[in-house]
């Protein structure tokens, strides 16, 4: 399956201080965009108005990245810009949940 499909990398950040959500979104845009093999990218704060019983409320920022291949995703994980992002922002994270799947 990995040979033919893109890899969707979805990350949900719960912050120590929810007021820092926009700063994390800005950091995502600065450090995590324009990587080789990135087919789609978006990052944003959770919409407070999405409050149906099925909506997960346990995160503040969502990152959505779709890579052309698993290899492109794997290269992204070890790229200097991604590693710098993690180092700069990890102190503000209470929890990080990652969901990877083929699409």
UniProtKB/TrEMBL annotation:
<feature type="domain" description="Stress-response A/B barrel">
    <location>
        <begin position="7"/>
        <end position="101"/>
    </location>
</feature>
<dbReference type="InterPro" id="IPR011008">
    <property type="entry name" value="Dimeric_a/b-barrel"/>
</dbReference>
<dbReference type="InterPro" id="IPR013097">
    <property type="entry name" value="Dabb"/>
</dbReference>
<protein>
    <submittedName>
        <fullName>Stress responsive A/B Barrel Domain protein</fullName>
    </submittedName>
</protein>
<dbReference type="Pfam" id="PF07876">
    <property type="entry name" value="Dabb"/>
</dbReference>
